[in-house]
Amino acid sequence: MNAPLQPHPHFHQVDLKPKDYKNEATPSFWCAGCGHYGVLTGLLRALSEIGVDPNFLVSVSGIGCSSRLPYFVNSYKMHTLHGRAGPVATGVHLARPDLAVVVSGGDGDGFSIGGGHMPHLARKNINITYILMDNHVYGLTKGQCSPTSREEMKAAVTPYGGMEEPLDPILYMLTYGATYVGQAFAGNAKLGAQLIKEGMEHKGFSFINLLSQCPSFNELDTAVVFRNACNQLDTGHDITDLSAAMQVVNKAKQEGRIPTGLLYKVDRPALDERMAALVERVGGHKDYDLKKIIDLARP
Amino acid sequence: MQGITKNDLIIRIGGEGGEGVISVGDFITQACARAGLDVYTFKTFPAEIKGGYAMYQVRAGTERLYNQGDTFDVLCAFNGEAYNMNKAFLKPGTTIVYDSPSDFTPDIPPGVHAYPIPMTQTAKELNNPRAKNMVAMGALSVLFNIPVESLREVLTTKFSRKGEDVVKGNLAALERGRELASALGKTDPWTIGTPKSKREVIVMSGNNAIGLGALIAGLDFFSAYPITPATEVAIYVAKHLPKRGGTLIQAEDEIASISQVLGASYAGKKAMTSTSGPGLSLMSEMLGMAFMAELPCVVVDVQRGGPSTGLPTKHEQSDLFLAIHGGHGDAGRIVLSVESIQDCIDLTVVAFNLAEKYQCPVLLLSDGSLAFSTQNVPYPNPDNYKLVERKRWNGEGEYQRYKFTGDGISPMADPGTPGGRHIATGLEHDETGLPSYTSANHEAMQDKRFRKLKGVINDVAPTEVDGTGTADLGLIAWGSTIGVVREALQRLRAEGYKVKGFYPKLLNPLPAQQFEDFGASCKRLLLPEVNFQGQLAHFVRAETSLRPESYTICGGMPFTPEMIVNKVKEILA
C-alpha cells in the first residue's frame, strides 16, 4: 500500500478523444455563455492528451456552479460539501496514491468557506490538481460578492456596492507553497488544457486559476474584460523564481492586466512520497504481525 | 510487615506536575498487573502546561475491578498542595504517607495513620534529587505489600534505555525508601492481597486501546487533529499504523479530518478520526454527507466537560444528543459507547464492522476518565476478532451505486473497478447517483438509508442484564458509569437489596424492546449519568414506554459506587 508511483501508472493507458471523457448522461447545468464550459473543454482535452484511464481518475468538487463539473466528466467522482473538496480529495489521494485526483471549484468555495484548507494543500504538497473556476461572484445563490469580486461590485447583499478588497488566489498559492501555479482565461481552452495537463503530470500540488466569466451575475468581469486583460507571460519568465512570479502578478495588477501561463513550478517531495518513505523506513506492510504491537502493552 | 489483606487497595499519589507522580503511578500499576493483580487507575492532569497539581490513583486488587473506587485508602503526598487538596478525605482508617521534612506539616486527624518519609531529603543524600518519587515508591511498596520483585523488573526495563547508572540510581532510591519505611512501625491494618497467579495480560489506557482496536479492525487511514482528551488515540495510531502500511495525516482542523476520512473511505479504505465534543460539533455537516452518500467511517468522541470549551480535562457524558442527532436534515448514525478498556478494543472493532456493513458513520463514545484510565485486560488475540468488509459490486450487469435492495444495502465499487464509475454526492440522488429531487425518489431513498439500520440491533451483542428475577429498583447506565453501577449493585445485594442493572452499549438505534423487557422486571428505574440534562434518560423516555428517574451530576468527576449506593438506599427507603 502507498508505494510511490511516478507519475501515475494510469496515464497513457488509453487512447480516448476529449468527447470520450464527457459524461453525456448529465443535462447541461450552466447558463449560456458561462465561462465554465471553457474550463470543461480544457479539462477534457487535457485528460485526452494524458490518456488517463477514466477508472483511475477521481474528480472531486465542493458546492457551487463550478462544483457541478464532475457530473460532466467520465470518472469516479465526489460532489461534496461547500469548501471541503480539498480535504476530501486529500483523503482519496493519500488512501490511494495510484489514483489521479482533480479538484474543481469556485472562488467562494475555495477562498471563502474553504479558505482554511488551501494553505495546507499547498504546503503539504498534496499530489492533486486544483482547478479554481474563478468568476469573481457567487453564482449558484444568484449573485453575491465573493472574495475575488471587485470592490466596486454591486451585488445582491451589497446593493450599495462592495467595501472589501479582493484577494488574488495566485499570490496566496505562491505564498502558501504550491509547487505548480498557473493561470489562464477559461475561454482560452488551449492554454487551459496545457496547464491542466502539465499540472496533472506534475508530482505535487498543482493550482490552476481559470478566469471564467459569469454572464448572469457579474457585469464587471465579462468574457471580453477577461480576454483583454489576460496577457501571456514573457517567454523569458523564470518559472523557478518565486519572487519573480509574485512580481509579475503585482506589476500586472497595477497595470490592470492578468498574467497567464505557467507562473511557478518547483520540485519538492509530495506528501504521499514522504509517507511511503516512512512506511518503508519502519518496515511497514499490510501483514505486519499485530502481536508485536500488542506485546508492547504487556506490563 | 503483617496486616489484614484487603481485596483491593486504593493508593492516591499527589504532587506537583513534573515531580514524578505519574511515573510512580505507572510503575505501581505495571508492577501490580505484572504480578497478576487487577488494576484500575484514575488520573487528573493540571490544565497548565508545566507544574500544577497532578494526581494518579491506583486501585489494585485480587478481584475484578470495575471502577476507580470511592476514595483512597492511602494518600501519598509529595507536597503541601497534594495534602491540602486531599485532607478532607483523610477519614479514620485511611493512611497518609508524606514527605517530611518538607514545606508542610500535616494535621493528622484522629484515626488516620501517618508515615512521614524524608523523600526529598533522601533523594538529595543519594545525589539523585529526581529520585524523590522512587524513595516514595519504595516506602509504599513495604507498607502495603506492592509486589516488589515486579516493581524492580518494571523499573529496570523502563530505565534500561537510559543506561545502567540510571537503573542503579533509581533502584538504590527504591531500596532506601523501603528501609526507611521498614524502620517505622506499621500502624494501619491494610496490605494489598497476594495475586492468585500470573496472567497473560496487557495494560492500556482507553485512548491507546481504541487505537489498538482500530489496528485489529484493519484500519488503513487515520486523520488526526489534536484535542484534549482524545489526542492520545492519534498518538498511538501514529506510532503503529505505518508498521501496518497505513496512512496517518494531521489535518488543519476537524472538518478537514472528517473530510479526509470520507475521501479515503470512498477510495475503498477503512478510515477513522478521533476527537472530543468541539471537534464533533464541527464534523456534524460532513457526517450528514456520510449518511447521504453512504460512506463508511468511524468517529471516536472522547467526551469532556461542555458546553463550548467547557472543562477540557474533566469527565462528562454529555455528547449523546450531539452524537445521535447533531446535524441538519434527517440523518441516521450508529452510536456505540464503551464501558471499559476491554470495550475500547472490542467495540472499536465492532464500530468498523458496522460502518463497513451498513455504509454509514459509526460514532464511538468514550469519556475523559476512561481516556487516561489504565486497566489490565486479557491479552487479545487478533485472530479471534471477526472482521467485516463492505459489500462490493460483483461486476455483473449495469452498476448502480445506490440500487434499491431488500435490506437497503447497495454494493460499493472502489475507484479502479471497470464499469463501477459513479458519483458520491450530498445531493439527493437516484439509484445511479445522479441528482433527483422528486418527492417519490427522496422518500424512497430516505426509506432505503434508514431501512439499512434496522439490522444493526441484531448485529450487536444483546444488552447485558446484571441480576435476575424481579427488582425493586433497576439501574440503567452507559459509558464508564456502568462499572460504577456494577460495584454498587454488588454492595447493595450483599445488604439484601433487590436491584438489577442494564448496560446498553448500542445507543443508536436504541434497542427499545430490550429496554422494555428489562423495565418489565423492575418496579422502578433509575438512570445515573454524568450530564445536566439526563441525555440517555431523554432518549429512553422518547423511544420506550419506560420512565426512568434521572440521577445526574456534572461536577467534572465520575460517579463513585458509594454515591450510587446512597441514592438507591434513599429511593428505596
What brief labels describe this structure?
heterodimer; A: 299 residues; alpha/beta; Rossmann fold; eight-stranded mixed beta sheet; 10 helices; 8 strands; 32% helix; disordered N terminus; B: 573 residues; Pyruvate-ferredoxin Oxidoreductase, domain 3; 4 domains; seven-stranded mixed beta sheet; 19 helices
Quick description:
The complex is a heterodimer of chains A (299) and B (573). Chain A is of the alpha/beta class and 299 residues long. Helix content of chain A is 32%, strand content 15%.
Q: What's the CATH architecture name of the largest domain in chain B?
A: 3-Layer(aba) Sandwich
* Name of the CATH superfamily of the largest domain in chain B: Pyruvate-ferredoxin oxidoreductase, PFOR, domain III
CATH topological fold name of the largest domain in chain B: Pyruvate-ferredoxin Oxidoreductase, domain 3
What fold name goes in the CATH topology slot of chain A?
Rossmann fold
CATH superfamily of chain A, called what?
A: Thiamin diphosphate (ThDP)-binding fold, Pyr/PP domains
Which sequence of SSEs, written as H and E, runs from N to C of chain A? HEEHEHHEHEHEHEHEHH
Strand order of the largest sheet of chain B: 11-10-12-13-15-14-21
Name of the CATH architecture of chain A: 3-Layer(aba) Sandwich
Count the E strands of chain B.
23
Number of strands of chain A: 8
Count of alpha and pi helical runs of chain A: 10
Most residues in contact, chain pair and counts: A-B, 55 and 67 residues
Provide the low-confidence segments of chain B as ranges: none
Q: Which of globular, elongated, flat, extended, rod-shaped describes the shape of chain A? A: globular
State the CATH class of the largest domain in chain B.
Answer: Alpha Beta
Helicity of chain B, in percent?
25-40%
Protein described:
The complex is a heterodimer of chains A (299) and B (573). With 299 residues, chain A is an alpha/beta fold. Chain A has one domain (18-295): 3-Layer(aba) Sandwich (Rossmann fold), CATH 3.40.50.970. Chain A is built from 10 helices and 8 strands. Chain A has helices at residues 36-50, 85-95, 107-113, 118-123, 169-176, 189-201, 223-229, 242-254, 271-281, 290-295, and strands spanning 57-61, 76-79, 100-106, 129-134, 180-185, 206-211, 230-232, 258-265. In chain A, α1 packs across α6. Chain A is globular and about 70 Å long. Residues 1-5 of chain A have low confidence and may be disordered. In chain B, the strands form 5 sheets. A 7-stranded mixed β-sheet of chain B has the order 11-10-12-13-15-14-21, sandwiched between helices. A 6-stranded mixed β-sheet of chain B has the order 3-4-2-5-6-7, with helices on both faces. Chain B has a 5-stranded mixed β-sheet with strand order 18-20-19-22-23, sandwiched between helices. Chain B is built from 19 helices and 23 strands. Chain B starts with a strand and ends with a helix. Chain B folds into 4 domains: 4-199, Pyruvate-ferredoxin Oxidoreductase, domain 3, CATH 3.40.920; 204-384, Thiamin diphosphate (ThDP)-binding fold, Pyr/PP domains (Rossmann fold), CATH 3.40.50.970; 391-460, no CATH class; 464-572, 3-Layer(aba) Sandwich (Rossmann fold). By secondary structure, chain B is an alpha/beta fold. Classes of the chains: A alpha/beta (299), B alpha/beta (573). The interface between A and B is large, with 55 and 67 residues.
